[in-house]
Design goal:
- The chain is about 60% helix and about 10% strand.
- It has twelve helices and three strands.
- The chain has a three-stranded antiparallel sheet.
- The chain is flat.
- The structure holds manganese (II) ion.
- Manganese (II) ion binds next to helix 3 and helix 7.
Length: about 230
């Protein structure tokens, strides 16, 4: 799945953190920062184009919101991990020790740099397919909800509000395990139905309860929702 570079130096540069360039290379400037700058623009462009072409009724305010969510640090860092770029980054010893390899800010920068390297090596189309592949799941979620936020808690809340129904109530119903390794169970009520979620924090458990509710409700009533809500 990973793009095959003709010019390996571009890939090397995209994977080189400044700290490594200064510590190990003669050329401190051989790092990913300029590539990152370019890649950031390419990612934003590709997402904008995707939103413009796929959601003809969406206004620019909404498109900006979704673009920001799709190009967020967390999403791009995840893309880096999926491509296995995290294992390939060249960091100084100090940066390595302080956990740089798993830091989202570095991982998202590396994904941006990687995209720019693919663009310079193989053109816009190649860069575009890397981005679309990496963001596929999130984009599917945006399509599924016709542009609603892909955070289940907000999605559920917005959905119920638009139907004129009360906002969902969350309740922690169980806390177990030792202090440093607690597990939480949260219950959310939507109408007369209850959904449960579990997680390592209250927030995580709420999120997974919201996901269960969302999938059950939206999955079952897809057609009704489409008429009543998404296209309304
Ligand atoms: Mn960046």
């Amino acid at each position: 799945m990973r793009y095959k570079f003709k010019n390996k130096e571009l890939l090397e540069r995209a994977l080189t953190h400044t700290s490594y360039a200064y510590e190990r290379l003669k050329d401190g400037k051989f790092n990913y920062e300029r590539l990152e700058f370019l890649g950031d623009s390419i990612i934003n462009f590709v997402i904008s184009k995707w939103l413009y072409n796929n959601f003809p009724e969406m206004d620019e305010g909404n498109m900006s919101k979704i673009k920001a969510a799709l190009a967020s640090k967390e999403v791009l860092a995840e893309a880096s991990r999926k491509l296995g770029l995290d294992d390939m980054i060249r960091l100084s010893k100090g940066e390595e020790k302080s956990g740089g390899r798993s830091r989202n800010s570095i991982l998202s920068d590396v994904f941006e740099a990687y995209v720019a390297a693919v663009f310079l090596d193989g053109g816009l189309e190649a860069a575009e397919s890397v981005i679309l592949e990496a963001l596929k799941e999130k984009m599917e979620m945006v399509s599924q909800t016709r542009g609603m936020p892909f955070d289940y808690r907000s999605a559920l809340q917005e959905y119920l509000m638009k139907l004129g129904l009360p906002v969902p109530q969350y309740e922690v119903i169980e806390e177990r395990g030792p202090q440093h390794r607690k597990r939480f169970t949260v219950k959310v009520c939507v109408g007369n139905k209850e959904f449960l979620g579990e997680g390592n924090s209250k927030k995580e458990a709420m999120y997974s309860a919201a996901k269960a509710a969302w999938e059950s409700i939206v999955g079952k009533e897809k057609e009704i929702i489409k008429d009543k809500f998404f296209l309304g």
